[in-house]
Design a protein that fits this description.
Number of helices: 5
Distance between the termini: 25 Å
Radius of gyration: 22 Å
Number of strands: 18
Bound molecules: zinc ion
Structural class: alpha/beta
Length: 358
Amino acid sequence: FTASINSKTRPIKAPRYSLNPTMQPLETANKKFPSLFFQCADLLLPWLSPLDLASSSLTCKFLHQISKQITISRSLDASQNLETHPIPFINNTPDSEPYSYFVYTPCQILQLSNPSQQWGCFNSSIYLKQTVSSLLTIEDGFGCDCEGICSGDECVCCRLKPEFDSEFGFEYEVMSECGERCVCDLSCRNRLTQNGVSVRLRVVKDGRKGWGLHAGEFIRQGEFVCEYAGELLTTAEARCRQQKYDELAASGKCPSALLVVREHLPSGKACLRVNIDATKVGNIARFINHACDGGNLLTVLVRNSGMLFPRLCFFTSRDVLEGEELVFSYGDVRLSPNGLRCYCGSSYCFGFLPSENT
Ligand SMILES: [Zn+2]
Ligand SMILES: [Zn+2]
Ligand SMILES: [Zn+2]
Ligand SMILES: [Zn+2]
């Protein structure tokens, strides 16, 4: 197999909100600042991290106003306008941190050397999305050439069709969906998990657990919530990063979101390992907290036809009410008895988060 990057992008949507109108009077009021300065600030500030944004806002009233608007815009949508509905941050804890800063990608991407992205800008035309939509595909990989709807025995991609059973969950742990080389488009019924997040969600902060993903509406059992998106890493890079994250965690900083997926191949003799790091670059799945009792989400590996790596997708294992936190089990292995504390609150709680050697 050879892997190549394919930059099939999703259609660019118009922004859902505009922050510009409130800025107009300010621009005319600040006659000493030429409009060019305004435009530059408008372009540059959305690239800044919260820390740099805070320092620049101390420079003058003008930059303070822009920084404030950017902060509001960021807290309104964790998905940075890349999903169907905005996913707001809600923080009622005393720290009042308005949002969690990261680079958003709706799908798996290759490791980025210097991840950065504009977030919270006013001008939609400069909203950059190209960097976040690469798919890893197998060269000359197969696809179906269904003339009608992809379904049943007719379509080669539908061999593993997801059938949800309310008692046992999905009948397979691995599913296949149509992919890059299939003739069908994204509206194909066998591409259930490829259109991003369609349920309403919120990112809510808890004093002990930190940020967590909550249902923003009633979600039926068996519904697709999201995939776990982030940077795909080599195992060497994953081990190196995990070591750094563990050091930072020991000093109480930087919660990491590095996930190792192991797919046991049909022969039973080999195992495909996929390392997905959503710590700096990822989607809202990076906020999903652990629950010792398994929670209300279950995971399924989904492989698009012609795609090298499977994707880890989350489905609801039962009906979820609006406002409920979405949680799943990170695993059963607890190597360190002094691992990070677990605050899942379930009656089966082990007291510590699962941890294993990466
Ligand atoms: Zn088909
Ligand atoms: Zn199809
Ligand atoms: Zn297909
Ligand atoms: Zn627990």
